[in-house]
């Protein structure tokens, strides 16, 4: 299920690898419709797709499938400044890096391309929040 408006985007998806291209396309479309800078778009799309991929790979071991939700919201931070906040939630079970035979670098990569990231895990699933500000737009206004 996809719900999109000017201020927010909500995706409810099966945790399947085939959904990655749909996620990427929906994010790019919504960010472009909001005039988000291209340089910030690429990094945010990468971070959200990586988080979704982590849910697909790690959240539902031994199950055919589960669900993942992705929510993006455009927020005013200070006068003339905007932020995109992205929340990726699965309803599976968290596994520590040591529990996986080949732990990856997904969370480190997400952290490196975003301005901030939080991670909450528990019995009800995992919720990763990532955000980025419109630095390119602010820099252009200063010129």
UniProtKB/TrEMBL annotation:
Gene3D superfamilies: Histidine kinase-like ATPase, C-terminal domain. CDD domains: HATPase_RsbW-like. SUPFAM superfamilies: ATPase domain of HSP90 chaperone/DNA topoisomerase II/histidine kinase (SSF55874). It comes from the Bacteria. The keyword Transferase applies. Residues 14-130 form the Histidine kinase/HSP90-like ATPase domain. Pfam families: HATPase_c_2. Signal peptide: none annotated. InterPro entries: Anti-sigma-factor_SerPK, HATPase_C_sf, HATPase_dom. Keywords: ATP-binding, Kinase, Nucleotide-binding, Serine/threonine-protein kinase, Transferase. One of its GO terms (molecular function) is ATP binding. PANTHER family: ANTI-SIGMA-F FACTOR RSBW, ANTI-SIGMA-F FACTOR RSBW-RELATED. This is ATP-binding protein.
């Amino acid at each position: 299920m996809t719900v999109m408006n000017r201020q927010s985007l909500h995706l409810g998806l099966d945790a399947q690898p085939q959904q990655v291209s749909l996620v990427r396309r929906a994010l790019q479309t919504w960010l472009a419709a909001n005039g988000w800078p291209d340089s910030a778009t690429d990094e945010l799309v990468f971070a959200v797709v990586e988080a979704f991929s982590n849910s697909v790979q790690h959240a539902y071991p031994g199950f055919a499938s589960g669900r993942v939700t992705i929510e993006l919201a455009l927020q005013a931070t200070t006068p003339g400044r905007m932020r995109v906040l992205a929340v990726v939630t699965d309803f599976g079970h968290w596994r520590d890096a040591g529990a996986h035979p080949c732990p990856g670098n997904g969370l480190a990569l997400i952290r490196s391309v975003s301005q901030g990231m939080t991670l909450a895990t528990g019995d009800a699933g995992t919720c990763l929040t990532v955000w980025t500000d419109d630095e390119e737009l602010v820099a252009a206004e200063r010129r």
